[in-house]
Amino acid sequence: MRAPIRRFTATGPGDQVFTVNIERDFRYDPYRDFVVCAHCGWSPSLLTMRRLDAMAWEHLASAHGAERGMSQQEDESFRKARRVVLPLCAVLVVVLLVYVQK
Ligand SMILES: [Zn+2]
């Protein structure tokens, strides 16, 4: 089960909006991200030192002619999940500290 965590969008000819998603497999492979184009199935090998966003912009521009209005945002559900998980971790750390000092 892969979930998109970040989206790169740009506007191409005819005001069509193109999207490249960065997806993460939280269950089996949480330390590796995938770059997937929502329009042509482009999904490059990430065995490279290049930045993901540079690759995404380059693909949008070269494959779809989308060079205007480039924006990137975190996926809404991923952002929500992080907002819940981070405070939980903080609480856990505090509880641990209190426990150790006893
Ligand atoms: Zn594409």
Structure write-up:
There is one protein chain. By secondary structure, the protein is an alpha+beta fold. The protein has one domain. It has a four-stranded antiparallel β-sheet. It is elongated and about 65 Å long. The structure holds zinc ion. The site of zinc ion has 7 residues, from helix 1.
Count the domains. 1
Mean pLDDT reading = 89
Q: Share of helix among residues?
A: 25-40%
Number of strands: 4
Poorly predicted regions are none
Q: List the total number of helices.
A: 2
Integer-rounded radius of gyration? 18 Å
What distance lies between the first and last C-alpha atoms, to the nearest angstrom?
A: 42 Å
Strand order of the largest sheet: 3-2-1-4
Ligand set: zinc ion
SSE order and pairing:
Elements lengths: L1 E10 L5 E9 L3 E9 L14 H13 L3 E7 L1 H26 L1
Antiparallel strand pairs: 1-2, 1-4, 2-3
Keywords: Membrane, Transmembrane, Transmembrane helix
Write a concise synopsis of the structure shown.
Keywords: Membrane, Transmembrane, Transmembrane helix. The protein is α+β, with helices and mostly antiparallel strands and 102 residues long.
